[in-house]
Design a protein that fits this description.
mainly alpha
Length: 216
């Protein structure tokens, strides 16, 4: 659509070569990974999450396999929700409308995940807003992908926690909920509770401040 029908450059969907700079990828990684890491560490420190025994196996081998699974999955979701569709909707109804519409779609895409609830869907929708803010703030779909991957990777690899209801490999140990599911995310994983939502709100505040500062 972009190249054959609209005849527009890659930069219009955040896929310009400059949008894949190491600095932008690192910025996305830090924003996405930092938000969920801060939330998870806060819950671990207060006993809302706890460490439980895992399975036998190689930590490094599991980390490699999980990363190879998460990276393309995050890229596909970003291209679907915050690539061409986001750009087209944004041109029609503005940035806010595009953020809300694509974030709602992002939430719906996770409706069939194991253990999905109304609360988890609302928080996934908020995650869509968070990732769209990364896309807008850095004008880079690559940065949004990096933030998305980092968010999932922190939960799956160092924490061995569920990711959107999916329990991936967890050799040696795993992180489980020890508090109310509406706070910790329960079986959905740390991203499904109030604390993770607060982490995303902090990330959104940072991105908004940064974007306004650049505009001024």
């Amino acid at each position: 659509m972009l190249r054959s029908i609209d005849v527009r450059p890659w930069r219009d969907v955040g896929l310009a070569r400059s949008a894949a700079s190491p600095g932008l990828l690192a910025a996305g990684w830090c924003v996405g990974g930092g938000a969920i890491a801060a939330a998870s560490l806060a819950m671990l420190g207060t006993g809302l999450l706890r460490v439980a025994p895992g399975t036998e196996g190689s930590w490094l081998g599991a980390a490699t396999r999980v990363t190879l699974f998460l990276a393309p999955a995050a890229l596909v979701e970003e291209v679907m929700c915050r690539g061409y569709l986001f750009t087209t909707v944004r041109a029609r109804i503005g940035t806010r409308g595009a953020v809300l519409a694509t974030s709602a779609l992002f939430g719906v895409l996770h409706a069939l995940n194991p253990g999905a609830t109304v609360e988890s869907m609302l928080i996934v929708t908020l995650a869509g807003v968070f990732l769209a803010a990364v896309r807008v703030a850095y004008n880079s779909l690559y940065a949004a992908w990096s933030a998305h991957l980092a968010w999932n990777w922190v939960m799956a690899v160092p924490l061995h926690a569920p990711v959107s209801g999916l329990q991936l490999e967890h050799p040696g140990y795993r992180i489980v909920s020890a508090g109310p599911a509406w706070v910790t995310g329960g079986a959905w994983g740390p991203e499904g509770g109030l604390i993770a939502a607060l982490g995303m709100m902090g990330g959104l505040a940072y991105l908004y401040t940064r974007h306004r500062r650049e505009e001024s």
